[in-house]
């Protein structure tokens, strides 16, 4: 039975992706960037669209939602997966609307009146069958994949607009996007980078080595020196793990300190974040990994709780500008981008 | 198709239909694991009367799921689960779990038999069925861990490649200093290891020992880095080569891993097998071996030390188990309702559809699914399993409350209480510290002992009927209570006392096995009864035996060849090195006249007695003294003997002379020994002895003349 075989193959792929996601979280697996995770998720969703059995858009959305829930549950701190699932759901909605002949824009403009009258019953509309829907959806997902491929390039292209000669730039930890951004600027301009080491994992050290290989003048500073050095800094450029719906960040631990110091010295804080990091989440849950150095402490004091947060929440007031693959935006504009990228009904998977 | 031979009636083997692992290329043998889902002890009694230990919930997930998750995340592709006690329940659980889904990366086979009595039996069965093909992991079904063992695996493989079949096992240890709360007191061990090769030289359980003995030979292992460590926690995870199973088959008296490790170390010279270790600094690994450990591991899981295995990860992938994690480590599954004014202070996990009344204070607590908790309840370090009803005004401190228990109004549970399945307590009763209540009467215990406690479920049902006839004591369980008390703190019946404390893992005199251990290690002369008898005593006994052999040889005129044979067999019996054999032989022979004639004989008498003996036993000496180094050793031990008997120094020359003439010793050896810098005044004195100087001079002259002849 080729059909059954196809399906087991598909579910096997999903399982292996899930276990890889889980292992990523533990730090045991291969350390991947979120860009790669986003690409892999989208590719997997394309495969699901192509291989799973569905008759109409409603079925497909249900399947994707179900798998999406499992994928996000596998690694709750990695929001990229959920974001990609939402993007694909949005694509399906658009393609369905186009096939039906109506425009998605009509749905977009939701007035208060419309919200009250229509209720949540828009699902029923997705039951119609269209023969070419599958091809269209896959085509659109391919476009999304191409967009994902180009994100880092698109962001680093804007580097020269923001980094000027002889500036002092501060960054924290290691972000692939920021790395590419700085390296791109270094082709034309000379500037100095301060890297906060970002203890206890000290990704900052790797960042500094990588930058200095490109002949960028680099200094590593301990996290405690952030405030002291800030007065000399012209710009702070950081990456983030997630951009939250309110324009805040969930970024690597220490970023909040950095942002507060930047605010105190009125230094502009620029966040390099590709669009796929934009998440409709608002609440922030502290995510904790194990901190080995504290093991001995608990052995003496069993009543002491040791917390090792990995991420900081940075409120939107502290951020000057977001640079994404589609251009620069202020934090207050994030809500608008959100409604363009995701359908409101998909916020909760 | 299963490739396993199954003896009818003895075991049932289950193979999941898809064995995708078979399709892997040959060069990469799939990683296998043996999971022993039975503890082979009764630490958790009476709880384990109704549910096997591997299925007890820890932070609302069965313990075996933690172990399987650990195995899977380290890349194990095939796991053999061995069950004995309540095997059908474990099988049922696994069948429903995600491990038996066709997509599972880890293929789980369940092997059950009522005949397993120990770890040894399980591994013998592994060998008999030829289940493992290459290195495998050996764990218990109650190990909670997130240790990344890939490095240890690699090291193990490297060692195996370097010396074929020498290293058979790598044990995983976690660094945790004394006083660390994951350290289980029954499991305290002292390890002597080679710092460079990570080889274990000596392994001893340190439980309640006041003195420790280390055999001398471990210091002669030829390594310059040597560590004795007490800061290690055995994670009960070991990487074994297939030989381990074979060794268990060969040595049918090995019951536990402890037996095995000690057996191997003691017989290292004969079998040539070594055990290595891997120490991890980070990562978490502990075995839930008693309720105290259960308490510790539960709270560590909730405090996220076992990350990424955390409650909200829902790694067991059970429907509806997912929960949310919020500040102060408060986890809530779906459908939890919390009354007005109730507080979840910190480290709390609440299962689905549990209802909590008003004004409750809950901290460091795990509550299972579908529980109902009344108003004004205080819970601290309580472990409440599923479908428990707790009425108003109840206080619980550090206790375990099993499924379907009913705690009525106003009950206070003090530290370390255990309410086993279906017990009813109250109302208005305070249970003293360490109370264990169960629906099973403690007397059943004895009945069961006779027909062996590993019986099947029918028996349990039958016994339940029987217990109904017995009356519940209202003083113990309250006026509406149901259940029997398993222990009173001041009780003459010591056996029960031990049992109940055992469950919390506090006592040390509980298991007889450890008793015998401590006795022996405290220097008893009960030799041979235990493999770990101290080496020093062996030497003494060996000396006596050699003396006896020589005496007999003299009396019965046995030929020298046979004497050598006997001494050699003694050498193996007492595990004595060749060098020591020679030293002892010299000592015995030199002291021989004293034993025969009494210690007060004159020097002349001594030498007249000794010289014929030397002549007679010359072939024996020649057998042992071969290399120049042997001669030096021989001379050194002669010196040692004579240093003890100052009055007979004159005889030394005669001994040396006759040994020289018998061609046991050569002149180079004697000269070398003589010229060697002596360390003590006394041995310098010995060297200045008139006769000796003459002898040396004579030797030198003889040498010169022989050179002249040439």
Polypeptide structure, described:
The complex is a heterodimer of chains A (349) and B (710). With 349 residues, chain A is α/β, with parallel strands linked by helices. Chain A folds into two domains: 122 residues, translation initiation factor eif-2b, domain 1 (Four Helix Bundle (Hemerythrin (Met), subunit A)); 187 residues, Translation initiation factor eif-2b, domain 2 (Rossmann fold, 3-Layer(aba) Sandwich). Chain A is built from 15 helices and ten strands. Chain A has a seven-stranded mixed sheet with strand order 3-2-1-4-7-9-10, with helices on both faces. In chain A, helix 4 packs across helix 7. The longest helix of chain A has 25 residues. With 710 residues, chain B is α/β, with parallel strands linked by helices. Chain B folds into three domains: 256 residues, Alpha-Beta Complex (Spore Coat Polysaccharide Biosynthesis Protein SpsA, Chain A); 123 residues, UDP N-Acetylglucosamine Acyltransferase, domain 1; 170 residues, Serine Threonine Protein Phosphatase 5, Tetratricopeptide repeat (Alpha Horseshoe), CATH 1.25.40. In chain B, strand 3 and strand 4 form a beta hairpin. Chain B starts with 11 loop residues before the first strand and ends with a helix. Chains A and B meet through helix 1 and helix 14 of A and strand 16 of B.
